[in-house]
Amino acid sequence: MVAIKPADADRFLSKPDPRRRVVLVHGNDQGLVAERAQRFARAVAGDDPLAHVRLDMDTVAADPGRLVDEANAVPMFGGERAISLRLSGNRSIEPALKALLAAPPADSWVVITAGELRKSSPLRRLCESDDGAAVIACYADADRDLDRIIDEETGAAGLAIAADARVALKSLIGADRLVSRSEVGKVCLYAAGNDAITVADVRAVVGDAAAFAVDETVDAMALGDAAGLDRGYRRLLASGTPGFVVAGAALRHFNFLEKARAAYDDGTPTKALTERARPPIFFQRQPAVARQIPLWSRPRIERAFAILDRAMIDSRLHGAIADDVIGEAFHLVAAIAAIARRA
Q: pLDDT tens-digit profile of 127-183?
């Protein structure tokens, strides 16, 4: 089995094994898939555009011999070539790949990229079972990976980053490698000329101010803070944020609370649940969310869902008073939380 362990992926990509001329890069982090495939292609073929060939999936599926011919073509100016192929649709490239693995090229490398493939996937099974291929899975970056991205980007920009700003930034990125790198780069650009990146810089660039305001309003509701809810909701409406947007955020939050409560009942600490949440919860918000989890039992969550769902329907039926309908529903949910706090 030739599946590269996550800890060994970067080392393999920077120093390719000449015995493995086919590399399958797949996973649910498409930014990381693209970054690793590009890094590997540069490692084997350099930056010469003539050494990089991109084949179409449909062409290879329709003509399996095309991949073998392209991989074994003699480079006009010598050197190594990288042949890239993006897996898409339901067409099969296994016949072409089997023929290539049976007669591996001497001067070319084939890099196949794909979304997440199950272990039962014919393509993944073929590559993992053949010594001439390697498989690299790409999943959302772990804490250590995010630290490395931040260090690389801030180092290149000549900037330091405050410890609390690093924590804040890591809580807002991580789902996609290219997006994460882009967001860190934007923060560096914003902070250029300063000594160090601060939490204010992170919040100004990566965090959406309206989104923070929505989160604060939803948290006030889920904690039973009627005054905070009323104040936050009125400010959002005054700033032009429609009530249905806040209601949508509230429904997503209760989806999280439903899953978190189940894990909490099984013994997982609230701190761990908020720190590991996906999508990430901004670190300054985590304590407030952690306090909500014990308040919301399954019956209370079901009641909140019923109230919010009904409000969304009624707001569509009564557009002229839609924001008022949703606001009233929010206060009903907040009352449930207030009762839970007193229990």
A: 999 999 999 988 776 778 889 999 999 999 999 999 988 988 887 777 677 778 888
337 touches 223 (CB < 8 A): yes
* Cα distance between residue 277 and residue 167, in whole Å: 14
Residues 6+ apart with CB under 8 A from 74: 107
Listed in sequence order, the residues at least 6 apart from 269 whose beta carbon sits closer than 8 Å to its beta carbon are: none
**Predicted confidence (pLDDT) at residue 1 exceeds the cutoff of 60:** no
Which pair of structure tokens corresponds to residue 265? 């009942």
Whole-number pLDDT of residue 209: 61
Distance CA 236, CA 243 (A): 8
Is residue 337 pLDDT above 90, yes or no?
A: yes
Strand segments (E) across the chain:
3-4, 22-27, 52-55, 81-86, 108-114, 133-138, 160-161, 196-197
Mean pLDDT of the chain: 88
Give the separation between CA 285 and CA 278, rounded to whole angstroms: 14
Q: Of 255, 239, 49, 137, which Cα lies nearest the Cα of 247?
A: 255
Tell me how far apart the alpha carbons of residues 300 and 34 are, in angstroms, rounded to a whole number: 43
CA–CA dist 96, 270 (Å, integer): 51
Tokens found for residue 170: 């890591």
Q: Which residues contact 53 (CB under 8 A, 6 or more apart)?
A: 70, 81, 82, 83, 84
The better pLDDT of the pair 3, 340 is held by 340
The DSSP letter of residue 81 is: E
Mean pLDDT of 304-331: 92
Sign of the four-CA dihedral 274, 276, 278, 280: positive
What does the DSSP 8-state code read for residue 51?
G
Nearest to 109 by CA among 21, 34, 20: 21
Q: Which residues make Cβ contacts (< 8 Å) with residue 178, sequence separation at least 6?
A: 30, 31, 32, 34, 35
The token duo for 81 is 């070539």
Indicate the pairing of strand 52-55 with strand 22-27. unpaired
Residue 250 has pLDDT above 60, yes or no: yes
